[in-house]
Amino acid sequence: MKDVKMKWLDTRVKGGYVTFGVPHSRGEVSAEDTLSVIQNGAAVAADTKPAAYWNDGSVKWTSVTARLDGGDVTVSKAAAQKSGEKLAADDDDISVDNGIFKIVFHKSGSVMAETENVKIGIKAVKTVISNEDDVQIKKNIPYYGNIKECVIEDNGTQKAVIRMKGEHLSKSGDEFLQFIVRFIVYKNSNKIDIKHTFIYDGKAETDMIGGISVDVTRKMTGSSMNRRVKIAGEYGVFHEPLQYLNVWRPRIGDKYYSKQMKGENVDISDAIDARNDQPCAEMLENVTIFDSYKLCQITPDSFTVKKKTAPAECAYIDSSFGKRAKGMMYGGDEKGGVAIAMRCFFEKAPSAINASGLSLDEGTLSAWIHPMEAEPLDMRHYDTIAHDQTHYEGYPWVGSDPYGIAATNELSVFLYNETPSDDVIMADAESVMRPAVLICEPELYKETNVMGVFSLPDRSTPLKKWLEDELDKAVDFYMNEVEQRHWYGLFNYGDIMHTYDSGRHCWKYDLGGYAWQNTELVPTLWLWYAFLRSGRGDIFDFAEAMSRHAADVDVYHIGDKKGLGSRHNVIHWGDSCKEPRIAMAGHHRALYYIMGGDYRIGDVFDDVKDGDFATLKNDPLGFFYDKDKMILPTHARSGPDWSTYCSNWYTEWERNANTKYRDKIQTGIDDLKKSPMRMISGSNYEYDPETGHLGYIGESAAGGSHLAVCMGGPQT
Description:
By secondary structure, the protein is α+β, with helices and mostly antiparallel strands. Helices cover 19% and strands 33% of the residues. A hairpin with a 3-residue loop joins strand 8 (88-90) and strand 9.
């Protein structure tokens, strides 16, 4: 193996803990080989493991985790640096000691994790709306995370990953919104990364999502003068002590207030009122003590900060405002504190971070993935009839169904043992907004063949230059449209629209099958190959957002549609066509491997590997054939159904060396070879998910044979 020189993605921060993927040509690296990470001429402690295998058993991708300083990074085949003990231990509960703090992860209950003075939990709010005598009644029912499974998913010397699964539980025992929450703890780091996934399992007609939050509670001690809040705004830090000493009386002088605003603790025990020689400490009962703060990004272009005192009957007052906050809030006392930050804070607006109880014995920071200040997330369809002919909405019935769709959000908790400076707050917020990514040069991705066949940019002739320029223009156009059209929001961010309406000079956002793209015509592959060819960070960011959206929102993760997805529509889950191609693993392979084996995308790969079984109840051609005359139980077009299964199976095979799925690919190939015109035959076949057999039923193509090639078939 030649040394692999990595480079930092140019749109992200550089340095810190990073997990990344290193590609290898077939036969180059074996599972027994060790890799070493070199920075500044010396080996760096790192965790390495295979993330995928070639068909000869050699390693295709290696996952690497290391703490790096932002300089040049090289990976070589050599003896790895000895790194020490693994971080996590599994007993009655799971504990992780990272050298800075010890955190315990519980296997049951509502408190998910806790350190000596910090607790972390999650909650959701179901909103039920009814109308009585022209009066709208809104009922908000709180649900708290209830752990059903807690396991060590990854345990290294540099990083430990704890995965929890469960369902939010109300006080009456009702369940709402399944969750998968991952906690990632790093050696000698004060940061805990949280990957929060919720899966909708309510009834669209009645069960709206009023709010979803991650809550961090910390014990608070000391004077309110030395308790403070810091909020990372657009250009600087909103910084206030709960009780600030810029007062009319007592005449305490400016030095104490100046120290407060520098983040320093103050002691006024020796301060004397200049007017009457009375100790200032005896005159502070009348000085306001604030307790609660709200940072709310109501729209992608507007955030507000509000605050209030502790009594419940008191109002919030306006404090500050801006365009796009960085999504981080700190609350602490004279001994340090805790901060929570959310990635894509404005991109997924509305979102919020609230603080409460900061003046009391325990203060809580709540990061609201969807805040109570916003309208509830309405999961219903936009109409009661299907517009199958006029607006290309599939079948002549409404097939909108949100049951089983998901959304994943990334958060980070920072534990500080002293008050962090404003510069530290801004830097830590940036590290969450734009987390570091290490990539390879495009030439290596091409040379190793890990992502199949593609070309590198070539402008050596006028025609080739024109083609390359047009490709760049297309990507740039859509990236600009995201901002211009504000394709933002919890369920929308990452997707693009399907068709433009030149009459209204807008996209056909309200016309059924012409609205959200939902991976139709594989824009995912377009963007990922555009990145692989260029190494451009802006394209990577665009492609990552699309993959994270499409893998969660456009795919069913539980229920009888698990492993299928919803075709393009006004509502992401609105189309009546529930098909495999939307959920194809190939959409997201590049993200998974470049990120060193992304955990959430791995979940999705697990969800779709047996997606062909979902067609037993959701036959993609069931509308066109008489069930009673069929020999095999369902249908599969050679493309995009069977070609999608091959992508799913191939990904399972390369990730886990699972030959069961390789054999299903071979079974289908053998059946296609028996067709009169082999791959050109069909494209409609009967299909048996149990055996993987395709049954030839003549030369017919419901939907057109072009679907075999325009939905990722050639790339697979």
